[in-house]
Protein 1
Amino acid sequence: MSTTTTPTRDLAGHVLPAAGTWDIDPGHTDLAFVGRHFMVTKVRGRFTGVTGAVVIADDFEDSRVEVTIDMTTVESGNAARDEHIRSAELFDVEQYPRATFRSTRVEWSGASGTVHGDLTIHGVTRQVPLQVTFEGYARDPWGGDRAIFSARTKVNREDFGITWNMAVETGGVLVSKEIQIEIDLETVLRAA
């Protein structure tokens, strides 16, 4: 893999990040999840502690991603709910303070693709495909080169051993099994 002084390149008519290591900017990254409460209401949460890097290869499909999520940084807008999410009934952050994603394969065409990888949450690893789009490039006021990506996927939380729930009187359960994951990722090109 080579690195270049040009932060972007044109591939088949699409402007994409140049080869190199693009570090995640935690202060400008939003890793969110959406579940359903009473199977109807959307409840959103996010993690503020996200670190890692996207290593862009000369051939985009040889690129790789590695992310670490500090599970203790979960926020849902309600302190009592956040404590329950962190508890042993759900994320059990005392025993599993970190989650990770490590890519295993990239399929890319134009400005979007699928990044397949191993997602480890709650001590359980499952293969997860992320639908990824390159949203654009910007140079910040301090001369840093930034590449912005978005990604989406759905997981069944029970596949990761997060099974707590309650039946509700009107049928169904209190918390949905299916969880939508939504990521807006800002990265900074690491100096060579």
Protein 2
Amino acid sequence: MLNLFPIPEQECNDKNCPYHGKLRVHGRILEGVVVSSKMQKTVVVKIDYIWRDKKYKRYEKRSSKIKAHNPPCLDAKEGDLVKIMETRPIAKTVKFVVVQVLKRAEE
């Protein structure tokens, strides 16, 4: 499943890296924007989605924030567009890992 994404050029020795460590990924693949990278090796990713209101039969935009592990070889920063993938629980609230940085934020 991980061979769908390009392998990063930079090496790292993080055991929770899906490329250079032993972390296996499975399940959902989500795309979002990094809104916070203040934690150590963890980023907060904002996911936008469309939700259907059953009563009024209309659609509305919603968003949720998901915490994801950020390996040093990818090093996602605030404003980056990233792809995250589900994995085993790494911490109490971290159940996703960044697998690809699609677009870097303009400096």
Protein 3
Amino acid sequence: MEYIIIILMSYLMGSIPFGFILTKLFLKKDIREIGSGNIGATNALRTGNKLIGYATLIFDISKAVIPVIYIKFYYPDYIFIASISTFLGHVFPVWLKFKGGKGVATYLGILFTINPIYGFIFVTVWITIFLVSRYSSLSSIIASLSIPIYLQIFEDFNSIFFIIMFVLILYTHKENVKRLQNKEETKTKIY
């Protein structure tokens, strides 16, 4: 029963569509009809309102930190199941017919909560790739891959969870990968 409650509560917390809510509330627009149609921070930036974009980023990170940090302290054996449930909540939110975001900000919140070093590695790799390419999608994919690689090289730690998360991030970016291959991907302006 405990297990089911943790999965359900983590999923529901992750499924709060902040990009959708903030865009609707302050811009009176449906974010799903803007840019890529995605509800995440990158597409929220495409509304033309940077404040909405950055607020979405912060809220999407926070909605992972809150349930995962609680589980980390009170039910540490369930931290990975809570993490993946939160992530899946963002990607497949019940409130939006299971069509959500790509999960990058939510994954970042998970990483910082599990181990801040992982979060800093992710951010460092993301920024480095972004400064070179200007592609948010490519930065996210490579940054996600950097975590299991780091664990394999520098830590004696089971990286299966992080490999699964990389595969999920790659899956949520499958359309971006096609556009990158065809040189049709849109570059992102973050400032």
